[in-house]
Amino acid sequence: MNKPATALYRLPYTDSPILIAQLQGEPQILTSLQELNGRKGFVIAPFRLTSSTPAVLIRPDLIAKGWDQIHEVLQCHPELKPGIISCGNESVESSEPILKKAYEEAFGRFITPLRQGQFRKLVLSRSATYPLPRDFSVMDAFIRACKEYPRMMISLHSTPFTGTWMGSTPEIILSGNGRQWHTVALAGTVPLIEGEENVTWSEKNRKEQALVTEYIREVISRFGTQSEEQGPYTARAGRLLHLKTDFKFQIDNPENIGNLLEALHPTPAVCGLPKQEAYDFITANEGYDRSYYAGVIGWTDPDGDTNLFVNLRCMQLTPHSAVLYAGGGLLPSSDPELEWNETLHKMATIKNTLTPNPRK
Ligand SMILES: C=C(O[C@@H]1C=C(C(=O)O)C=C[C@H]1O)C(=O)O
């Protein structure tokens, strides 16, 4: 029998994780984000829906809140324990020079149409595979991520359809309840150096983020009333800084947030502009499958709180390896070396949780 579908997550600025588990049957497969209208559960949706990467909804047969309750539940239901413990020793590590060469080639495919004016922005991403350290415990990694990244949403989810993923994302796609909703335009990245959060943002970073703001403003104007905008301001995410604009808005019918989600996802923070063309271009030219990276994860409840995030700074776990994912927004002025370094910095967010003594 398959292991039950589970999701363990910790919201930003809280210290109380939540465990959701479906005890009977398989999670529901969704054919679009719109199908979330009126539905409750933990969502795992890919960047692009395919038959091998469906969107799924974990039905909350069991909900445990806080470590005490979670430990109690795991004692009664050991089958819900996140199961990956490393078997070590497989040689799975991707070679960095090979990865960099593939990235530079993809960069070349992306930058040409950007410079020809076919796109205003394109997000280029990549993956890298690392062996899991001997005795790796995913639960320990989750706890380390919770401690290390108090401002991020930490998640660890596993279903027979989607596999096991862990991540620390800084990006809300949609949160709220009743009529009050919140989303963000998050883009532009620099490393945090000696804790200094007061940085001057380059023209490229400001432009990149402004394009996301413009897009989200337009989507909200179609769905919401009374939108309030705050930003852009500098927001810390682990050892990185981003530019962020908050949108607070009202919607009349929270039953239909699936429609809004379908319109928002994927935003130009992970895709590009114009949206559909960028989406098709990325699918055809990025050179790998993003799978659940840059998709949507989180809790949705038409009668309570909804907290949905973009699945970033994440990895897929197998018994031997972790596949890490990261990307960044390209504009016509982008430089390949800087963009490659940005993917290294972003990957380090989740890579640092693999071992007990990460790089400081
Ligand atoms: C694409 C990622 O992050 C997104 C892209 C950013 C950028 O291009 O600067 C910044 C934050 C996120 O919206 C990622 O983490 O992989």
UniProtKB/TrEMBL annotation:
InterPro entries per record: ADC_synthase, Chorismate_C, IsoChor_synthase
SUPFAM superfamilies: ADC synthase
Domain Chorismate-utilising enzyme C-terminal residues, every copy: 100-346
EC id: 5.4.4.2
Pfam families: Chorismate_bind
Keywords annotated in UniProt: Isomerase
GO molecular function, one term: isochorismate synthase activity
Source organism superkingdom: Bacteria
Reaction catalysed by this enzyme: chorismate = isochorismate
Enzyme class, UniProt record, top EC level: isomerase
NCBIfam families, A to Z: isochor_syn
Family: Belongs to the isochorismate synthase family.
Name recorded for this polypeptide: isochorismate synthase
